[in-house]
Design goal:
With about 375 residues, this protein is an alpha+beta fold. It folds into three domains: about 90 residues, Rossmann fold, CATH 3.40.50.20; about 55 residues, Dna Ligase, domain 1; about 200 residues, ATP-grasp fold, B domain (D-amino Acid Aminotransferase, Chain A, domain 1, 2-Layer Sandwich), CATH 3.30.470. Helix content is about 25%, strand content about 30%. The protein has eleven helices and 21 strands. The strands form four sheets. Strands 10, 11, 12, 13, 14, 15, 16, 18 and 20 form a nine-stranded antiparallel beta sheet that branches. Helix 1 crosses helix 9, helix 2 runs parallel beside helix 3 and helix 3 packs antiparallel against helix 4. It is globular, with a radius of gyration of 20 Å. The mean pLDDT is about 95.
């Protein structure tokens, strides 16, 4: 039996574990929150810091494979494990590069991956050197996630409110859609991508609100986006699963926005909507199995369940019974005990033979179910 250690024990680890059970793989999880989503379902949950060198190293040293479900981990410990012969996927140097949005952007530029123009600054004062390039998005090089650490600079007056940390200044992209491709690569170099999905964001929380599979794009764009994702993971020589978030511009260009070297929010719908889920694909890729069939079985829409504004405390899923009475509605509750505004508490996938019908059901579900507190 393979013994896999996952650094991080959140909802991504939880869904990974649910798939790994089918392969009789022993999964261990390390997380700093003793009530993390994996804590209630895994007998091999360890409460410890994913940023502490000693704790990450001790956790990983007796595993066959070590992987992650979040990028913000102690990379030096993973490097030591790798040097001692433990398989670490994705490889630590790739995690280290992806932790820094500046290094990400430089990798795209240096390897011919299409992306928006950008500038690198060390502090707020240096932004003034690029006022002629306004508008742009300022992105903290390190520490940002789920829309945090990102702010628009639309006018010169906005510079004073920018982040005073090393950052990427990324030229605004006049995009038509935001799309995503999940791609995987195993140790033998086999690469396979999932069909393109379309993301619709909550403008206030800057989180995905709806995800549509398949995306409403031409076959040409579908082929181009998948090719870019496959080209990227090959150039990284990465083992594991990679989410590639992209912009489709109004001129029909596909530009890479950001990448995540792990299962991703834009792949949740694959559990019900594809032959192989992103979690099974990640498992296959890191334990040396052939990659699975990524074909869509049914059109699907995914909704993130976010904590409602104005509610904080023990969670209640109001009207869950009403929405689960609808055919094709599949809830995934992450097991988080406490809700707060915009916290990801779960997701719901809606599958239907007709994507438009799935969208109609999804809009109703979104308006009906509410994540509130007791």
């Amino acid at each position: 039996m393979k013994k896999i250690g996952i650094v991080g024990g959140g909802q991504l680890g939880r869904m990974f574990f649910q798939e790994a059970i089918n392969f009789d793989v022993e999964c261990h999880f390390l997380d700093g929150d003793k009530n993390a989503p994996c804590s209630s379902i895994s007998p091999n949950f360890v409460n410890g810091s994913i940023l502490d060198f000693d704790q990450v190293y001790a956790f990983g040293k007796n595993k066959d494979v070590v992987s992650i479900e979040i990028e913000n981990v102690n990379v030096e410990a993973l490097k030591k494990l790798e040097a001692e012969g433990i398989k670490v996927f994705p490889q630590p140097h790739i995690i280290e590069m992806i932790q820094d949005k500046g290094l990400q952007k430089e990798f795209y530029r240096d390897h011919g991956i299409p992306t928006a123009d950008f500038f690198l600054v060390n502090n707020r004062n240096e932004i003034s050197n690029y006022v002629s390039e306004i508008p742009f998005m300022q992105k903290m090089r390190k520490g940002g996630y789920d829309g945090k650490g990102v702010t628009p600079i639309k006018h010169e007056d906005d510079v004073a409110g920018g982040f005073d940390v090393p950052s990427v200044l990324e030229k605004f992209v006049d995009f038509d859609k935001e799309i995503s491709v999940i791609v995987a690569r195993n140790e033998k170099g086999q690469v396979n991508s999932f069909p393109v999905v379309e993301c619709e964001f909550n403008p206030e929380a800057n989180l995905v609100e709806f995800l549509f599979s398949p995306a409403d794009v031409s076959q040409t764009i579908e082929k181009e986006a998948c090719q870019i994702a496959e080209d990227l993971i090959k150039k990284l020589e990465m083992v594991g699963i990679l989410a590639v978030e992209m912009f489709l511009t109004k001129e029909g260009k596909v530009l890479v926005n950001e990448i995540a070297p792990r299962p991703h929010n834009s792949g949740h719908q694959t559990i019900e909507g594809n032959v192989t889920s992103q979690y099974e694909q990640h498992l296959r890729s890191i334990i040396g199995l052939p990659l699975g069939d990524t074909s869509i079985t049914l059109p699907s829409v995914m909704i993130n369940l976010l904590g409602e504004k104005g509610f904080e405390g023990p969670v209640v899923y109001d009207k869950l019974d009403e929405v689960t009475a609808i055919s094709g509605v599949k809830p995934h509750i992450y097991g988080k005990k406490e809700t707060k505004p915009f916290r990801k508490m779960g997701h719901i996938t809606i599958i239907d033979k007709d994507l438009e019908k799935a969208k109609e059901k999804a809009r109703f579900v979104k308006e009906t179910i509410k994540v509130i507190a007791k």
